[in-house]
């Protein structure tokens, strides 16, 4: 019986190899990054330190809880109180969680933050945070860091699309989990026959669903900026993180077992040959097991290699691998796709030219913007600017897919967004009712997130300059997508001769300083955003007011109701019964803050996101908006010259949402527990 004994020793070998592998995969937790501010430190051997040590030991001793997270507070007096929390990756067992938390509590004091009061440390398996201020149940967007795998992916454009779909799916899943439970989701998607995309998102279990959604939205929105074209990336915020790789870095949930192999399914062999076929089966199984093992080992080594090649990017991010060539479309293809720019396919005309719908041979629908030929920019420059703008990818931005150059002809190719633009619904007496309160509120939030991305993407910082209802497209689910951004870049606006190139702004949406003096900054976009909010609430066009005999503009209308406390009267009349009063008031409040005359008084987009997400932030009172738009004659002034980019960029306020060591302690929001109803008394 040589064969069976061979089989037994084979099995032993296999078992020992397997245990070797699993021992290794249970190795030490993988450190990712940490922040701790050296500006708030405690004195060694103080009461604070002893409380701090007790905190860490409580966290460790509570790390085998089934819930996978724990928060606690230690201290008698406010000065010596320490707050701490950890949460483990959602797929870990209590024992694995314990390993990570005890490593984190040990390493953070021994290696990274010996005397700092405020710290956050991320491992691949868990997050540990502590502070001398309570931070439970509050979303934090600072400090943050993104890490990426330096390996490039092939076909970055298709990969990014797949990634977007995957992230979208799991963001919703994770954020829908009830507060106080793990907010965690993963998914796998086939990229190619050999490559699978593994994606994971997770939030601090104590924050609300909407905070989780926002946090993940911002984190995912960062991916294209930091890590486009990379095989793996990880964006870390104190309250949430996202990660994707093309190897499994979490426990993939059980999939239905594959169909058994034909060998084992084969019908019982005719008698007499049974011994032979048994041997064959054993040999085949042994060979299969060995080759699977070899594959596993090879794969494991590959993964190790991939993991080592990680680069941290504390926020100045390198470009991905999209190239100008990969974005170029053939003119003949576009001509065919749009049926030779047939009038039937015309979707509209914007400030920069006419827009046509097209269908590529692969059935992909596109929108083609045929630029009016006034740009004096060279082809190379044009390509480079398109490349930069194409890298701006966010779910609330219309995606620029590429361009086409043919002689004097310049075309931009965009993703096609099915539902037309916001103004089409908002200002139509019949269609308006399709936008109920929750979709309007969702649109406001989506536009805010898209604008935040434009303003704060660290490489570019795009000022839109023409944000308005007709530049907000709606997808099939009425999610907003901002269009026409980056046009100043693509159009090659001359930065030294401010008066030669004209940029279209839209009267009514333009802030006073932009309309009168041509000064623009992120705060002029904020102004336009404020006008947009008030339009969305009221269903009234900013420009329609001046034309009626009442000669009252939208801003004075909103202000009047705000100061009278008749908040709901600002709303579209058919919506007053179905809305959330607090959300409405919050939106009017934000809208009025945005349209204040002094740009410095207007909130930044980051602040607006915070305001929208935490009902309990105390907002300053808005000041009366400027009423400079009254004169009717001015309304015929649709375009204005811009001042040079240079002078205005020096006036831009800097917003520190992303990273740096001190920012974890410099969050200025006076968050209190007062409910919104107390803030907005009837
Ligand atoms: C904090 O660290 C920075 C950089 O390491 C250093 O320049 C600074 O002096 C430190 N501040 C304090 C208070 O130790
Ligand atoms: C936290 O510690 C810093 C410096 O040690 C101190 O300035 C700050 O007031 C403390 N915060 C609270 C809430 O005690
Ligand atoms: C703190 O206490 C430890 C042991 O109790 C002692 O070794 C150390 O010197 C003390 N450090 C200070 C700064 O007093
Ligand atoms: C868990 O934490 C609490 C304080 O929050 C502490 O009293 C307790 O001893 C810790 N350990 C266990 C095992 O519960
Ligand atoms: C943990 O966080 C929750 C939610 O913020 C809070 O109500 C609770 O008091 C915290 N627990 C401790 C021990 O601080
Ligand atoms: C990835 O692509 C970038 C830009 O195209 C290039 O600089 C880099 O060397 C590539 N990295 C690898 C590992 O091939
Ligand atoms: C990925 O491909 C495998 C085999 O090719 C298939 O069994 C699996 O269903 C695919 N998964 C998805 C999510 O499409």
From TrEMBL:
Record Gene3D superfamilies: Gnk2 domain, C-X8-C-X2-C motif, Phosphorylase Kinase, domain 1, Transferase(Phosphotransferase) domain 1
Tell me what topology the record assigns in the membrane. Single-pass membrane protein
**Which catalysed reactions does the entry list for this protein?**
L-threonyl-[protein] + ATP = O-phospho-L-threonyl-[protein] + ADP + H(+); L-seryl-[protein] + ATP = O-phospho-L-seryl-[protein] + ADP + H(+)
Q: Which UniProt keywords apply?
A: ATP-binding, Glycoprotein, Kinase, Membrane, Nucleotide-binding, Phosphoprotein, Receptor, Repeat, Serine/threonine-protein kinase, Signal, Transferase, Transmembrane, Transmembrane helix
One Pfam annotation reads: Stress-antifung
Boundaries of each Protein kinase domain copy?
341-628
Task: Cite the residue spans of the region called Disordered.
Answer: 642-668
* InterPro entries given in the database record: GNK2, GNK2_sf, Kinase-like_dom_sf, Prot_kinase_dom, Protein_kinase_ATP_BS, Ser-Thr/Tyr_kinase_cat_dom, Ser/Thr_kinase_AS
The cellular component terms of Gene Ontology attached to this UniProt record, alphabetical and capped at eight, are: plasma membrane
Q: Where is the signal peptide?
A: 1-27
Q: Which residues bind ATP?
A: 369
Compartments, as annotated in UniProt:
Membrane
Say if the entry is tagged with keyword Signal.
yes
User: Which SUPFAM superfamilies does the record cross-reference, listed alphabetically?
Assistant: Protein kinase-like (PK-like)
Q: Cite a single GO BP annotation.
A: defense response to bacterium
Output the PROSITE patterns linked to this UniProt entry: GNK2, PROTEIN_KINASE_ATP, PROTEIN_KINASE_DOM, PROTEIN_KINASE_ST
Q: Which residues form a coiled coil?
A: none
GO function term, MF aspect, one: protein serine/threonine kinase activity
List where the protein spans the membrane: 278-302
Q: Where does the record place the Gnk2-homologous domain?
A: 30-135, 141-249
Protein name per UniProt: Cysteine-rich receptor-like protein kinase 10
UniProt source species: Quercus lobata (Valley oak)
């Amino acid at each position: 019986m040589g064969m069976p004994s061979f089989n037994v020793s084979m099995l032993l070998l296999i078992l020992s190899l397997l245990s070797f592998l699993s021992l290794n995969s249970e190795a030490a937790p993988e450190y990712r990054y940490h922040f701790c501010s050296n500006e708030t430190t405690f004195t060694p051997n103080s009461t604070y330190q002893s409380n701090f040590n007790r905190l860490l030991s409580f966290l460790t001793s509570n790390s085998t809880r089934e819930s996978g997270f724990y928060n606690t507070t230690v201290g008698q007096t406010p000065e010596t109180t320490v707050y701490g929390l950890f949460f483990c990756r959602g797929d870990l067992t209590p024992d694995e969680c314990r390993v990570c938390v005890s490593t984190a509590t040990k390493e953070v004091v021994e290696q990274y933050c010996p005397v700092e009061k405020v710290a956050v440390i991320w491992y691949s398996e868990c997050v540990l945070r502590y502070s001398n201020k309570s931070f439970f149940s509050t979303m934090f967007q600072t400090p943050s860091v993104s890490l990426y795998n330096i390996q490039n992916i092939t076909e970055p454009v298709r990969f990014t699309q797949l990634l977007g779909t995957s992230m979208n799916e799991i963001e919703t899943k994770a954020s829908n989990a009830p507060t106080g439970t793990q907010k965690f989701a993963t998914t796998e998607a086939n990229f190619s026959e050999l490559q699978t995309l593994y994606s994971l998102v997770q939030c601090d279990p104590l924050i609300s669903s909407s905070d989780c959604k926002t946090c993940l939205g911002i984190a995912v929105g960062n991916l294209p900026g930091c890590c486009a074209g990379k095989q793996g990336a990880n964006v870390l915020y104190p309250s949430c993180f996202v990660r994707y790789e093309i190897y499994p870095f979490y426990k993939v949930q059980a999939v239905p077992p594959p169909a058994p192999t034909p060998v084992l399914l084969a019908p019982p062999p005719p008698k007499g040959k049974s011994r032979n076929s048994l041997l064959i089966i054993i040999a085949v199984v042994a060979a299969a097991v060995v080759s699977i093992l070899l594959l596993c080992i090879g794969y494991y080594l590959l993964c190790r290699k991939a993991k080592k090649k990680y680069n941290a990017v504390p926020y100045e991010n390198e470009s991905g691998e999209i190239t100008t060539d990969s974005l170029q479309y053939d003119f003949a293809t576009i001509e065919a796709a749009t049926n030779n720019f047939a009038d039937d396919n015309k979707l509209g005309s914007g400030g920069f030219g006419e827009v046509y719908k097209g269908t590529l041979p692969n059935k992909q629908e596109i929108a083609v913007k045929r630029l009016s030929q006034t740009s004096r920019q060279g082809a190379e420059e044009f390509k480079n600017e398109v490349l930069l703008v194409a890298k701006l990818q966010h779910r609330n931005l219309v995606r620029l897919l590429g361009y086409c150059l043919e002689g004097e002809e310049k075309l931009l190719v965009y993703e096609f967004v099915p539902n037309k633009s916001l103004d089409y619904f908002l200002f139509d007496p019949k269609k308006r009712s399709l936008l109920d309160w929750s979709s309007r509120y969702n649109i406001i939030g989506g536009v805010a997130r898209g604008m935040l991305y434009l303003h704060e993407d660290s490489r570019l910082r795009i000022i839109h300059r023409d944000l308005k209802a007709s530049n907000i497209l709606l997808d099939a689910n009425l999610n907003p997508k901002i269009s026409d951004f980056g046009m100043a870049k693509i159009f090659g606006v001359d930065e030294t001769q401010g008066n030669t190139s004209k940029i279209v702004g839209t009267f009514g949406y333009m802030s006073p300083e932009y309309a009168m003096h041509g000064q623009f900054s992120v705060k002029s976009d904020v102004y336009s955003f404020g006008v947009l909010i008030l339009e969305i609430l009221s269903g009234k066009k900013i420009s329609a007011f001046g034309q009626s005999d009442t000669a009252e503009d939208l801003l004075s209308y909103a202000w009047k109701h705000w100061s009278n406390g008749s908040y709901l009267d600002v709303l579209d009349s058919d919506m007053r019964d179905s809305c959330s009063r607090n959300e409405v008031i919050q939106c009017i409040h934000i809208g009025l803050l945005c349209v204040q005359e002094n740009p410095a008084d207007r909130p930044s987009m980051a602040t607006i996101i915070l305001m929208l997400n935490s009902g309990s932030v105390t907002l300053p009172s808005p000041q009366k908006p400027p009423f400079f738009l009254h004169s009717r004659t001015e309304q015929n002034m649709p375009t204005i010259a811009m001042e040079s980019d240079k002078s205005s960029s020096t006036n831009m306020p800097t917003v520190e949402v992303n990273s740096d060591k001190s920012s974890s302690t410099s969050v200025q929001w006076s968050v209190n527990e007062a409910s919104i109803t107390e803030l907005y008394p009837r």
